[in-house]
Amino acid sequence: MIRLFKPRFRKQIARIEVSGAIAGATRKYVLDALKTVEEKKFPALLLRIDSPGGTVGDSQEIYSALKRLRNKTKIIASFGNISASGGVYIGMGAEHIVANPGTITGSIGVILRGNNLERLLDRVGVSFKVIKSGPYKDILSFDRELTEPEQHILQQLIDTSYNQFVQTVAEARRLSADTVRSFADGRIFTGEQALELGVVDRLGTEEDARRWAAELAGLDPEKTQCYNIEERKKGFLSRFLPGRSQSLTQNLTHNKSLLGGLSWLEFEMETNGMPLWMYRP
Fold first, then answer.
1. Which residues contact 205 (CB under 8 A, 6 or more apart)?
2. Is 74 annotated as catalytic?
3. Where do the DSSP E strands lie in the chain?
4. Distance of alpha carbon 105 from alpha carbon 196, whole angstroms
5. Which of 14, 33, 112, 196 sees the fewest Cβ atoms within 10 Å?
6. What is the pLDDT of residues 239-281, one digit of tens each?
7. Is 137 one of the annotated active-site residues of the chain?
8. Average pLDDT, stretch 191-195?
9. Catalytic residue among 35, 137, 233, 234
């Protein structure tokens, strides 16, 4: 049977937005959304990124899925207000990147934070007895300072993750690893500076990125619309108080600043002691 008309999705550009810290929930949403893009055979994808970064593994999985999808779909990334660290990493999965001149980007590097409450615990008279199978099983414990061997172990961990980041940027942007290392020291820079460094392809808005995606897919940039694949968000409180927090969650939804604060607190709790590709001002 001969098809006289293209299916509806073949005439549209899929749009996926990555906002906030990248963690498990973001990874699940993006991977599911990318499956939808593939199944519905969208000719192009506009990936809008407004994120300070996040966890290493989740960023890597999103990047890998984008790279696979590039064999079937044209992908343009649009950097918003901020696309730093892990936000840059997932952007490397796109064929081309557009950033606003004032976009905050960069922060290519790795950070790991732990808390040392030893002096506070001594003051209140609290101590811990630890039974462990090896000398490093309680590495980054909050009740004592790191030992020199522990610092060495963690630095090796950070260096390995950092080298993975550098190699990915170098490969995606067709730069040498040494060139990437020259600006991948954790510094942030603007979209305009990113263009000069070769991290992005063009300066422009999300609309400019949409038009470019349409052109690459052989569609009319004047008429082609975006099909938003949206995230289904579950409230922070509903995960801990099922069936009892609906009214609270609804009230918090109207107070976006408070809800955002709770989400960030949750991220901090979940990632404490983990290596992060994250911009932390």
1. 78, 98, 100
2. no
3. 13-19, 44-51, 53-55, 74-84, 96-99, 104-106, 188-190, 202-203, 226-228, 276-278
4. 13
5. 196
6. 444 444 455 455 545 565 554 555 667 777 777 778 999 998 7
7. yes
8. 98
9. 137
